[in-house]
Amino acid sequence: RYEDTTKHIAGLLTLPNGRVIGHYFQGRLALARQQTAEAVARLQEVVAEAPDMTIAQYMLGLAHMQRGQPQLAESAFTKAIKLAPQSPEAYLVLAELHLREQAFKQALAVGQQFLQSQPKHPQASLIIGRAYLGQEQFPPAVAAFKTAMELAPQSPQVPYYLGIAYQRQNKLPEALQAFEQALTHGPRFTDALARIVQLHLSQKQSDKALVRVKRQVQEVADQAAMHDLLGSVYLERTEYAAAEKAFETAIALDEQFLNAYFNLGRLYTATQSYDAPIARYKQTIASNPKLLPPYMLLGLLYDAQRQYDRANEQYHQVLRLNPNFALAANNLAWNYT
């Protein structure tokens, strides 16, 4: 697919007026391949020659984000908004950038600008609600979420954030109702189910948590995160065999689902069961040496036994597969101190 795209781009570059669009698609292709420096270089060439090309400014912002340069990304998205104030994409990504950095006042300003441009767009009200929520200004947050729900009544995301707003005010029945509404509209929305479980467990109602998760697993049986959550409830109830089975089901559905391996590490540490799982996941690695999560699990199990040299060997393997894996790097640094 990439080879075909490269051929088309080469053809564009031979056309009399094809230089700008050709470089634009080169940037898009490099971004898709996560060749970030190349993407930035090509897209910067485009905006230098065609500064009014909105989509190029937007894609340049994405490239800067991928490169870990949020200030440059913000500049590019801001330019894209000025060029096309009716287009929602740049507002959404810029607001998400601010929210991720907990720059809630900046996110609020973007949301309000978006709302002024498109008063009926539910995402504008959602951004405003999330920005107020981040500042713990609950009444305007709830009002914004309710406005968004009126504009997008089938959205699972909006009642989810409304539920968080209620939960932070300790309005637990209202929070539970909102999270249930989120699950009704999005049965695969694991975060909403996790909040329901959290509410039940906080009130010492593990039976209710278990029943609720089992019901959702029956509806969405092919989702690793659902089985992982089921295992977490069993683990909370110290039903270790059922927990292990649920975590292993999650891994069978998605062998890259890291959280299930972490939870298995918690389980084996709680039960002081090390030898059998270590042998089993060594076999997994032998059959698939490029699979990262088992190395991380082995590292955690060796750490739990204070076998730090063996743990560090596993963390080095993790970093060989993914040099940016922060937890492995942190565990290594801790073990070396």
Characterize this entry briefly.
With 337 residues, the chain is mostly helical. The protein contains 20 helices and no strands.
Report what the structure shows.
By secondary structure, this protein is mainly α. Helices cover 79% and strands 0% of the residues. The protein has 20 helices and no strands. It has helices at 2-13, 19-32, 36-49, 54-66, 70-83, 88-100, 104-117, 122-134, 138-151, 157-168, 172-185, 190-202, 206-219, 224-236, 240-253, 258-271, 275-287, 292-304, 308-321, 326-336. Helix 4 (54-66) packs antiparallel against helix 5, helix 6 runs antiparallel to helix 7 (104-117) and helix 13 (206-219) runs antiparallel to helix 14. It is globular, with a radius of gyration of 24 Å. The two termini are 47 Å apart. The mean pLDDT is 94.
Secondary-structure topology with pairs:
Elements: H1 2-13, H2 19-32, H3 36-49, H4 54-66, H5 70-83, H6 88-100, H7 104-117, H8 122-134, H9 138-151, H10 157-168, H11 172-185, H12 190-202, H13 206-219, H14 224-236, H15 240-253, H16 258-271, H17 275-287, H18 292-304, H19 308-321, H20 326-336
